[in-house]
Amino acid sequence: MNNFSDGDEQRAMLMGAKRFCKNTNLNTAELRKAIAKKMIAEGKYCY
Question: What is the pTM (predicted TM-score) of this model?
Answer without folding.
Answer: 0.45
